[in-house]
Design goal:
Blueprint (H helix, E strand, L loop, with lengths): L1 H36 L10 E5 L16 E2 L4 E2 L5 H13 L3 E6 L9 H15 L4 E9 L1 H7 L4 E10 L12 H7 L2 E7 L7 H4 L5 H26 L3 H9 L6 H6 L5 E2 L2 H12 L8 E4 H5 L12 E8 L1 E3 L7 E3 H13 L3 E10 L1 E3 H15 L4 E10 L1 H4 L6 E4 L4 E3 L3 E7 L1 H8 L23 H26 L3 H7 L4 E3 H6 L5 E2 L2 H11 L7 E5 L5 H22 L3 H13 L2 E4 L8
Parallel strand pairs: 1-4, 1-9, 4-5, 5-6, 6-8, 10-13, 10-21, 11-12, 13-15, 15-16, 15-17, 16-20
Antiparallel strand pairs: 2-3, 7-18, 14-22, 17-19, 18-22
Length: about 600
């Protein structure tokens, strides 16, 4: 009796103690984040210049209080969403305290090309206000230069540099590694272009995959050439010749050929900003950061009754709750239902930035979106990626907007399994044995190759999923299944081609999609934006954000440029089953 009392009392003490430690630790971390993130109220004086440094711009708003915290540097890294960035630039155009914008990119070149395209278009509209835009960078990558070329004046450091050589896409293949290890990948797919599995079964691109890569990369480079040409008044042919001849081999060459206006040090650029802003002689202009200015910008019509709901689908599509950086079917369904059942939400914009993932999870979300569409307008805004499962959930929309840099389509499915039995036996001397209650009870085993009957069984499932996928797209886009199949087969399309073949309805970003949704219900100018986010418990949000932040930081530090490849392999292997996923990880240099 005494032992039992002592044991349970000790167990209770351990549980309570652990809970108190977790609560105390949570309070410490939250307080630390708050203290690091706190800053005095920003005062924007007349004659100020808005400095545009986009940093780690994302589509969806933060859920965890740790989302913007850098544990390596022990500081809060400003996290700007695309919507906040666009709203800040729009507000600056009408703010008589802001004289102009200073583009100082910092890390923003790492943002997605499609997101940068939306901000660049907003800067074009900003210039219509008559205010100036100046850009400076110590050295420009070609994508950073493309973004900065929207400025009225573009400068670089005299000892800096500028890259201008064209776009390149490199794929990594693992077949040779698997051959050495004795691992046999088993692939079942529908779609001659469905090449997500090619890195595991080939040692180079298939002709179909090379064709789509050439088309896609060429379309993105064509967009860059056209927009730089329009901004700098340089013929496209000349810009292509500069790349082909490696003409821009120094800052001086960039100036001589009209890509850069002048070579200046940053203090000299600051003097130019002061001159343009009308600052008193000898004084520096008041420069306000984008993050600080955004805190001063109120969302339009905060008290309006009508709401345009914006739902974000950003990341790999998975079944269940999902983790950070994933679109879990459970929280996604919950957000869609909340938007459908909210009487004040008169229309919905679904912002998609996803390479796809689980076909089943995509089907679950598709059904909820169909129910929503039956009650209120549904507009899709595509970001950098809306491919495979990402297009699957876009199919029900009344209208689909994308950017020229958007990659979409990839209407196809595949299944991927591995036989590691030979590797275990030949490399490690490990063998397995099995007892089955039926002939195919161990179907999908990782320790043997599937039989022809099993392959046919799985192929039937793949074909059924593909047929369902094609049917949803045909219904949503008012096309025949045959027409969808012709542009499907797993092929990925860039924005220009997607518009031509009917996968999207027009070009435009998130702001244009919101405006279209408002027009559809006749509430233009009389609505507010409601960003529908998941609602985890505070502790779940904190601990989930902490573990994800630390894990991501460690992997990025260890893998460096190979981190994206690791993520792609991990996503493909972890999901298993039949997948509707983009056929490659895009890494354009």
């Amino acid at each position: 009796m005494n032992f039992g009392r002592t044991f349970f009392a000790s167990l209770l003490a351990v549980i309570v103690g652990f809970g108190l430690v977790v609560m105390l630790w949570t309070m410490v971390v939250v307080g630390m984040v708050a203290s690091f993130g706190s800053s005095p109220s920003v005062v924007v004086a007349r004659g100020s210049v808005l400095q545009l440094d986009l940093g780690a711009m994302t589509d969806s708003p933060a859920v965890s209080p740790l989302d913007g915290f850098d544990f390596q540097r022990m500081e809060v890294v400003p996290r700007m969403t695309l919507l906040k960035t666009l709203q800040a630039v729009q507000a600056a155009a009408a703010d008589d305290r802001i004289e102009g914008i200073y583009i100082r990119l910092g890390e923003s070149a790492s943002a997605s090309l499609a997101s940068l395209e939306e901000v660049r278009a907003e800067l074009e509209r900003f210039k219509e206000s008559g205010k100036f835009v100046v850009a400076y960078q110590e050295a420009y990558s070609q994508l950073a230069y493309w973004f900065a070329s929207v400025a009225d004046e573009v400068y670089t450091n005299p000892a800096g540099g500028m890259e201008w050589k064209g776009l390149s896409s490199t794929l990594i293949f693992y077949k040779g590694l698997f051959d050495k290890l004795g691992v046999e990948p088993v692939v079942i797919r529908h779609g001659s272009f469905k090449s997500a599995v090619e890195p595991y079964i080939l040692d180079r691109m298939s002709p179909e995959n090379r064709l789509q890569y050439e088309k896609m990369t060429g379309a993105l480079w064509g967009m860059v050439l056209e927009q730089v040409s329009a901004s700098r008044d340089i013929p496209v042919a000349d810009l292509q010749a500069f790349a082909d001849g490696l003409t821009i081999d120094s800052p001086a060459a960039a100036v001589a050929n009209g890509l850069i206006d002048d070579l200046r040090y940053e203090d000299q650029v600051t003097d130019r900003l002061a001159e343009l802003a009308g600052t008193a002689e000898g004084e520096e202009p008041g420069i306000v950061s984008l993050g600080d200015y955004a805190t001063q910008v109120s969302a339009p019509n905060p008290s309006a009754k009508n709401k345009i709901a914006v739902i974000y689908a950003e990341g790999t599509i998975v079944s269940g709750s999902g983790a950070r950086g994933e679109v879990g079917s459970d929280p996604m369904v919950e957000k869609i239902r909340r938007a459908r059942e909210d009487e004040d939400a008169v229309a919905v914009v679904l912002r998609i930035n996803s390479p796809g993932g689980s076909a089943l999870a995509s089907e679950v979300m598709w059904r909820e979106l169909e129910l929503l569409k039956a009650e209120k307008p549904l507009i899709v805004s595509m970001g950098a990626l809306a491919a495979s499962g990402g297009y699957y959930i876009a199919a029900p929309a009344d209208a689909i907007y994308a950017n020229r840099a958007t990659l979409t389509g990839s209407i196809g499915v595949f299944g991927l399994f591995y036989n590691v039995g030979g590797a275990l036996k030949d490399k490690l001397g490990v063998t397995t044995d099995v007892v089955n209650t039926g002939r195919y009870a161990d179907l999908g085993s990782a320790y043997r190759s599937p039989s022809s009957a099993e392959l046919a069984y799985i192929q039937t499932s793949v074909e059924d999923v593909y047929t369902t996928f094609v049917g949803h797209v045909a219904e949503g886009r008012n096309m025949t299944p045959e027409a969808v199949d012709n542009i499907g087969q797993g092929r990925v399309w860039a924005g220009d081609d997607a518009l031509e073949i009917g996968l999207i309805d027009g070009f435009g970003g998130l702001a244009e999609a919101v405006s279209l949704a408002a027009d559809r219900v006749g509430v233009s100018g009389d609505f507010r934006i409601w960003e529908v986010t998941a609602e985890p418990s505070p502790l779940d949000a904190l601990l989930g954000g902490l573990s994800a932040s630390i894990r991501t930081r460690i992997m990025k530090d260890e893998l460096g440029p190979l981190y994206n490849q690791y993520q792609n392999i991990r996503n493909v292997l972890n999901e298993g089953g039949i997948q509707a996923r983009m056929p490659f990880a895009v890494d354009i240099q």
